[in-house]
Specification:
This protein has a five-stranded parallel beta sheet with strand order 2-5-1-6-7. Strands 3-4 form a two-stranded antiparallel ribbon. It has one domain: P-loop containing nucleotide triphosphate hydrolases (Rossmann fold, 3-Layer(aba) Sandwich), CATH 3.40.50.300. The protein has nine helices and seven strands; from the N terminus they run E-H-E-H-H-E-E-H-H-E-H-E-H-H-E-H. By secondary structure, the protein is an alpha/beta fold. The two termini are 17 Å apart. Helix 1 crosses helix 9. A hairpin with a 2-residue loop joins strand 3 and strand 4. The protein binds 2'-deoxycytidine-5'-monophosphate. 2'-deoxycytidine-5'-monophosphate binds next to helix 2, helix 4 and helix 8.
Length: 225
């Protein structure tokens, strides 16, 4: 029996917009692998800082890229990345990484490398991927695109609730203003403002949008790996 083609759902949006929670919950409901692309940019930033390289020295960062092995896959239904065999997962949300990840993700060579790894997921599974440029650059041809947003007060409160004091407006400005693959509403993306939603109502709204975009019947999905 021929299997239906694999597909990617693209979830983009600024920091603390609710996109990670939303992507994770949609993934659970639909039985899809959830890929956190921000974690990949954070992992490279972790390595740069660990090697005591100046994140603003793009030549040194590019040189590092040629000397490290990055592997991305999934454990269960969630993406993971190792660099030189180490999974820095627990350290990815440090203040130092929050403060430097935008500089690292503005380097085109970093993006090219990670975008390739992101696209590779589709070689073996259907995915829901969250990030900043998933609908615009990584999977521009997917019909399934949502741009998630929330007002600034709600976003700052969400960060505070998880104990983070990340200056998100500064990071959002850097991510939106960079030359290469800036944060933007991708062509064809539907906007979902989660400010007044509970998690459950946001997931329901997102699934309605995906159904309107023609999401295949779940019964037709290839089984997860
Ligand atoms: O989703 P996050 O906050 O963990 O992402 C961390 C940073 O990574 C974000 O500030 C910009 C960068 N990023 C990116 O440039 N492109 C993506 N697709 C995902 C994240």
């Amino acid at each position: 029996m021929t299997q239906p083609p694999r597909f990617a759902i693209a979830i983009d949006g600024p920091a603390a917009s609710g996109k990670s929670t939303l992507a994770r919950e949609i993934a659970k409901r639909l039985g899809l692998v959830m890929v956190n692309s921000g974690a990949m940019y954070r992992a490279v930033t972790w390595k740069v800082l660990q090697q005591k390289i100046d994140p603003n020295d793009s030549a040194a960062v590019i040189d590092l890229l040629g000397r490290i092995q990055i592997h991305c896959g999934e454990v269960g239904m969630t993406s993971t990345c190792t660099i030189d065999g180490v999974d820095p997962a627990d350290e990815l949300r440090s203040e130092a990484i929050n403060a430097n990840v935008s500089a690292i993700s503005a380097i085109p060579e970093v993006r090219d490398l990670l975008v390739n790894l992101q696209r590779n997921y589709l070689d073996h599974t259907s995915i829901i991927m969250e990030g900043r440029d998933i609908g615009s650059v990584v999977f521009p041809d997917t019909p399934f695109k949502i741009y998630v947003d929330a007002n600034e007060t709600v976003r700052a409160a969400r960060r505070h609730n998880i104990g983070e004091v990340d200056p998100i407006s500064k990071r959002d400005a850097a991510d939106s203003e960079r030359l290469h693959a800036p944060l933007m509403v991708a062509e064809g993306a539907v906007l979902l403002d989660t400010s007044d939603h509970t998690i459950e109502s946001a997931v329901n709204a997102a699934i309605d949008i995906l159904n309107q975009q023609g999401l295949p019947d779940l019964g037709e999905l290839p089984p997860p790996p």
